[in-house]
Write a sequence for this structure.
């Protein structure tokens, strides 16, 4: 027991709010689990959305090109037609263009060592250019791609592709290929894993003519105006699409998230999480408020303004939000840690944490509204009953 | 005699309407002054609590006017009435109405908080009030850990927070045994005289009468008797 002169750090509405909550521990725990669960649901769904979005535009985001020249009508980076190499020389002639690299991206058939086929995305890169290189390499070297038939794949898809170590051999489009390295965490939204190889090797598998490629990646001279160069390229080359890198990334995200319905499905689930949270918070806060109506009536009778009562409710909501958010965010990061080894990533950047915090505050304040509406009608004369 | 703190002129309160309408108060006119204890007597259902609610600005009467501290109430809205209660009135209830989750001193501190006493002074002032009512050594107890008389003392300490000039007590002794009840009323009597505030007590308890300066009788919502007490202990 504390001595008579003791101070509690909480006074006034904060004290009332905290005691109202902590007094009914079971209900408080239900509230926290409800808020936490709701944060978890929203966090995972929105994190999946971010993960998917980043997956769909990964190749573009990791390129060092200012502009992407794509076959006309290209809607996303994973699926595209062909360009003639003479386009490259046309592009180089446009003022403001510094360098133009080639990037091949085509689907292929991967025959596993023990039989069975998988669809893969062949990524042909120029080793002597930095426009696009496999990133997060955990085994082997990019330079090893120089060797005959050499390919690099991602660890996440090693099982799916039936290979385990450097030196394993497979067939792509009925031609031999050999693993020389592994990346980690390079996912594909199409579920056709990226298989990295040199542009020269890549020509062989899908039977491209030697003067064909999929994309041309353009770097600008210092000081060149990207918009102007883009317009000039379109005029000069005709019948191609020219994208700013960020726009192309956005386009790929839009294409996959909208056409597959994944985007709206995830947003809908996140919304569901929000609604669940509002219902649980509203319900438990209201139950607490109804339990304590005589006390609110007493407060009102002794002269508390309505705002004072509302402040107690809002602080209860805020406390529930804070603790529930902590709990939920913790759970979200557990999921993030677990999925970082799977082929679907839940990615929760700091801005998403802020979004979740804002949603939690909204959820709890919205949940508090029913309680506040009840207190508007409170009758202070009921204290004499 | 000073100007009255509270004046009622022809106050009438009717509950319900039409066939079920019930006149709880009819044509009540009276004045309450600082420094005295007024005892309100009357049979059950005679309108005592209703009258107390009118005096405490909790209920605006359908007829007549109420003037508290020079301010007529008839034009005030709910928030303004609350502000007036906060500034002038301290309530003591039959069932104490303490906040069960708050310690004794915290109960008093909430009332101080309402009256905008700065946070760093709330503890000291609450302790001072509890000391005054002989409850200093129980300040950290929760209401459930206190006896009825102790609870009522804490409730009085809370009512005194911010030094109101009108204290209204509805059957403050009803739940207490005779001796404890008498102690509580004696305390209220002391307050009226020492702090010069007006105290109105509703009670059925004959042991309260010796502490009253004035006794009002209500019957069927009408004031039937209003006399100065002869043998009060002041
Ligand atoms: N909220 C209300 N609605 C309708 N009628 C009411 C209400 N409050 C009181 N009354 C009626 O008004 C009359 C006076 O009630 P009041 O509570 O003032 O009496 P009282 O003198 O305090 O009685 P008691 O000694 O039993 O407490 C009673 O007939 C009661 O039934
Ligand atoms: Mg009564």
């Amino acid at each position: 027991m504390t001595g008579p002169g003791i101070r509690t750090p909480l006074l006034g509405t904060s004290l009332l709010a905290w005691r109202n909550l902590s007094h009914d521990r079971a209900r408080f725990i239900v509230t926290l689990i409800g808020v936490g669960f709701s944060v978890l649901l929203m966090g995972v769904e929105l994190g999946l959305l971010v993960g998917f979005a980043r997956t769909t535009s990964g190749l573009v985001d990791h390129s060092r090109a200012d502009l992407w020249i794509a076959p006309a009508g290209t809607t996303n980076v994973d699926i595209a037609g062909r360009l003639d190499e003479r386009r490259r020389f046309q592009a180089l002639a446009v003022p403001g263009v510094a360098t133009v690299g080639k990037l091949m991206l085509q689907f292929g058939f991967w025959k596993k060592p023990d039989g069975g086929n998988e669809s893969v995305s062949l990524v042909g890169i120029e080793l002597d250019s930095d426009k696009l290189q496999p990133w997060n390499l955990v085994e082997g070297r990019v330079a090893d791609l120089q060797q005959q038939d050499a390919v690099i794949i991602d660890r996440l898809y090693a099982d799916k592709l039936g290979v385990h170590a450097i030196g394993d051999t497979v067939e792509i489009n009925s031609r031999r290929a050999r693993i020389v390295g592994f990346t980690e965490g390079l996912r594909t939204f199409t579920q056709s894993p990226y298989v990295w190889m040199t542009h020269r090797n890549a020509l062989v598998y899908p039977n491209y003519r030697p003067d064909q490629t999929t994309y041309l990646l353009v770097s600008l001279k210092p000081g060149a105006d990207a918009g102007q160069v883009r317009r000039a390229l379109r005029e000069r080359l005709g019948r191609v699409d020219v994208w700013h890198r960020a726009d192309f990334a956005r386009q790929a995200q839009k294409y996959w998230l909208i056409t597959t319905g994944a985007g709206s499905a995830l947003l809908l689930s996140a919304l569901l999480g929000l609604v669940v949270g509002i219902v649980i918070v509203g319900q438990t806060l209201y139950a607490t408020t109804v339990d304590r109506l005589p006390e609110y009536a007493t407060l009102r009778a002794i002269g508390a303004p309505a705002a004072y009562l509302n402040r107690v409710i809002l602080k209860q909501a805020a406390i529930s939000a804070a603790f529930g958010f902590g709990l939920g965010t913790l759970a979200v990061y557990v999921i993030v840690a677990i999925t970082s080894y799977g082929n679907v990533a839940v990615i929760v950047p700091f801005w998403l944490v802020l979004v979740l915090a804002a949603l939690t505050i909204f959820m709890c304040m919205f949940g508090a509204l029913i309680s506040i509406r009840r207190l508007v009608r409170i009758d202070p004369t009921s204290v004499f009953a | 005699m000073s100007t009255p703190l509270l004046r009622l002129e022809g106050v009438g309160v009717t509950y319900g309407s039409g066939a079920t309408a019930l006149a709880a108060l009819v044509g009540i006119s009276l004045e309450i002054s600082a420094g005295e204890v007024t005892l309100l007597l009357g049979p059950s259902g005679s309108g005592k609590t209703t009258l107390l609610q009118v005096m405490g600005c909790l209920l605006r009467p359908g007829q007549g006017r109420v003037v508290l501290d020079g301010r007529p109430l008839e034009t005030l809205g709910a928030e303004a009435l609350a502000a007036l209660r906060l500034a002038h009135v301290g309530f003591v209830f039959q069932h104490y109405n303490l906040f069960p989750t708050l310690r004794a001193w915290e109960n008093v501190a909430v009332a101080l908080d309402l009256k905008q006493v700065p946070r760093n002074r709330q503890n000291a002032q609450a302790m001072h009030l509890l000391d005054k009512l002989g409850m200093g050594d129980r300040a950290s107890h929760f209401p459930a850990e206190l006896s009825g008389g102790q609870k009522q003392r804490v409730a009085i300490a809370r009512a005194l927070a911010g030094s109101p000039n009108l204290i209204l007590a509805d059957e403050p002794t009803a739940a207490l045994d005779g001796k404890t009840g008498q102690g509580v009323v004696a305390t209220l009597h002391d307050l009226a005289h020492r702090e010069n505030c007006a105290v109105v007590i509703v009670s059925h308890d004959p042991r309260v009468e010796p502490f009253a300066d004035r006794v009002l009788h209500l019957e069927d919502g009408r004031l039937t008797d209003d006399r100065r007490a002869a043998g009060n202990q002041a």
Q: What stands out?
A: Residues B 48-49 surround magnesium ion (ligand 2) (CB under 6 Å).
